[in-house]
Amino acid sequence: MATPCSSSRLRYLIHLAHDNVDFRLPVNIFYFLLVGVALAVSVNSPFWCLEGLSEDDVRSVMARSVCAKSAFELWGHGQTDGNLRSSLLNYPPQSMSPFLHKDSTYRINVYTFNKTLQFQDRIKKIDALDYLPFEGTVSLKTPQHIFCLLEDYGTDPNNIPEHPNYIYFGRWIADGQRELIRTHSVKNRHFIGNTSMEAGLSLIMTNHAKVKENDLIFDPFVGTGSLLVACSHFGAYVCGTDIDYNTIHGKGRSSRKNQKWRGPDENIRANLRQYGTEKMFVDVMVSDASKPVWRNAALFDAIITDPPYGIRESTRKTGSYKENTKLPDCTYVESHVPVSQAYHLSDIFTDLLNFSAHHLVLGGRLVYWLPIYRYCDEMVPVHPCLQIISNCEQTLSSQTSRRLITMEKVKEPEESDIIAHLSDPHFSAYQGHNAFREKYFSGLNKRCGKEDTKYFNKN
């Protein structure tokens, strides 16, 4: 097995959570490249060794990351206990001494990945580190310094080795923001809908978009505002639109028992108020992505959205197939709900990319979900003004998935860019998204039919 940390310059270790594995590399690349870090990591590994950054850089990364559990200053590593001991004894004593002197207090934790150790086994591993020159006092509750022994037992839960594949030891620096996933969980949210985005993915999308304080963020399919909640946590101003009049104006049946609707915008405002970020709320209006009311608005720093797939929510836009849809006096009452018509997924993406090209600042990002049935690269919509930064997959079934697409605006649009997609050879490929709903339910019906046949054959 190759040594994951072979460089003598390696100084820091990132312990990553093993969920949403495909999403964490693009997020962390942005932060690591921002501070000039050399990245040589295995995407599937729960431990990343890094060099070329300071402790302050590590803390700034961990202050945003929801994919990382903890970060450590790496003192030693090896494939065996003997290798670890040699590595630790070769670590510069002057780098250790500020944390091991007699007036300090400390604690040693043992973390294992893919294996659970008994308490007695953990104590034995700590006792085996007696060759380290600890002179301070042990304090389990309030230590000044925390040290960690981390053991990697691979990623296959069905083939756990007796001994670890690799061992690390280091000084704890900071924890990631995993706690945000719990505090922002939709289980505790005041208002939710059929398609409210889970907190973990909402925060990941926020990091993919590089959302920062005082940014202006727009969601054209805002729903109950899950993505706006995540963006506002990092100090961004948020706004959005949605075609669902009832959702925006807080009318109709709720998605949660005893959930009370309080009037226009109050469902989204209440979600923001729950986390103390209501002041970041700009506005939410009834509109759709084909005719957004923000066409004359100032440029957005990022556009983050989850378009409807036609599964839990229908794909509709305002308009009619009739030639004349205006009232005789061209006026509408306040409660008027515009006539809607079918909105094909390929048209949604075309409008979304065109809108983003015109209304993102240069360098601004578009982050959106793309539903896929049997993926191929040609299915991802493209635009002359937008460069694809990352393409991450979340599997939904054996045939379907959705991909988190991150794009960055690289140039200002020209008149010809509006219809550029028609000459794109990929256009016919991603027009296949229009049948996603039919293919999804066709596959579901086939699976249900097979299960029913098995049931009747058994009985």
Question: How is this structure best described in words?
Answer:
The strands form 3 sheets. This protein has a 7-stranded mixed sheet. Strands 10-9-8-11-14-16-15 form a 7-stranded mixed sheet. The protein has helices spanning 21-34, 55-62, 81-89, 93-100, 119-127, 179-183, 199-208, 226-233, 245-249, 266-274, 345-359, 427-430, 436-458; strands at residues 12-16, 47-50, 68-78, 105-113, 137-138, 145-152, 166-175, 216-219, 237-242, 281-286, 300-305, 316-318, 340-342, 360-373, 386-395, 400-409. The protein is elongated, with a radius of gyration of 26 Å. It contains 13 helices and 16 strands. The model is unreliable at 451-459 (pLDDT under 50). With 459 residues, it is α/β, with parallel strands linked by helices. Helices cover 28% and strands 24% of the residues. Strand 15 and strand 16 (400-409) form a beta hairpin. This is tRNA (guanine(10)-N(2))-methyltransferase TRMT11. Pfam families: Tmrp11_N, UPF0020. It catalyses: guanosine(10) in tRNA + S-adenosyl-L-methionine = N(2)-methylguanosine(10) in tRNA + S-adenosyl-L-homocysteine + H(+). GO terms for molecular function: tRNA (guanine(10)-N2)-methyltransferase activity; tRNA binding. It is found in: Cytoplasm.
